[in-house]
Amino acid sequence: TTTTSMQSMRSSFQVQIQPLVPMSQSSSTTALSMSFASPIKNAWKKKQQKSMTVSMSDSAATPEGEKKNFFQKLKSVIPPANERKKLIPLALMFFCILFNYTILRDTKDVLMVTAPKSGAEAIPFIKTYVNLPTAIGFTAIYAKLCDKLEQKNVFYACTVPFLFFFAAFAWFIFPNTGVLHPHAFCDTIAALLPAGFSAPLAIVRNWSYAVFYVMAEMWGSVVASLLFWGFANEVTTVDEAKKYYPLFGMGANVALIFSGQYVKWVSKMRGNLPPGVDPWGVSLKYLMGAVLASGAALVALFSHMQRNVMTDPACVDQEKREKRKNRKKVKMGLRESAKFLMNS
Questions:
Q1: Is 95 in contact with 250 (CB distance < 8 Å)?
Q2: Confidence (pLDDT) at 240
């Protein structure tokens, strides 16, 4: 009985245990797979739906956004009205200054090189012994003018004499060079001196050409470098200078193109003159006439800016301008100015 009972218990136990093993493995794996697969599947569905909505929104918003960015960029390139009011006259002033300088630079070299008993060897002597002392003397005169006059009057006082001289040279001095130039005196001195003094004697012999050479050089140094940039720094702010000063350089290149074409036209016109007419005299009148017209436009633009731009609070900070006017000027001579610059 005991054996039969034990066998029956073993058989019942095996019957109960055997189906449990495969059921536990299959159920656990399916449960685990279901538990991991369902959140991954849901997350993948959500991600796919989100990407579809984002792509649809991007496709719907991209053309309008591109248009908006394009117009914003185009609008950012154009300066605002208050900046255009002062930048356009400044650019035109710079154009006039460099238009004149190109004509004067080309004319001064030709005058000295083609002068009687002169040549290219005279140019270094002019730059060293005439141009340099003149620049030093002008520095002292400019310091005196700045102490006694307002800045706008300094501009007029420095610009107008240049224009008067160039007009006088073309219409009065050059036609009378035979009387004004001491050729006989220089020939007498040249016979007594060595041949190495021919270049300094050429400067004395053609002194009016040498003066024209120096005045043309001073136009670039005084009007372009000193007066214009000083006035531009007074009108524009630092941020505006960073943006627009490179554009002035582009305007300078345009001025060189226009002046070069004008000089070329004047040179071709000399070939159509009747015999007996001095071609140099006619060319100088046309060239200096253009210089006078451009100089008059420069003075008119500067006067316009003084009346309409410098008094506009939207263009120039009036408080800073008043402080600059009311600030006491420290009067220093040339020696004191040099010491101040050395110690600064």
A1: no
A2: 80
* Cα separation values, 310 from 71, 191, 265, 314, 322, Å: 32, 60, 38, 10, 11
Q: Is 53 left (phi over 0), alpha (psi -120 to 50) or beta?
A: alpha
- For 250-305, the pLDDT digits (tens) are 777 888 899 989 999 998 887 788 887 888 889 999 999 999 999 999 999 999 98
pTM exceeding the 0.85 threshold for the entire prediction = no
The structure tokens 């070069």 sit at: 260
Q: b or e along 13-33 (b: 16 or more beta carbons within 10 Å of the residue's beta carbon)? A: eeeeeeeeeeeeeeeeeeeee
Of 85, 325, 94, the residue nearest 230 (C-alpha)? 94
**DSSP collapsed to 3 states, 323-343:** HHHHCCCCCCCHHHHHHHHHH
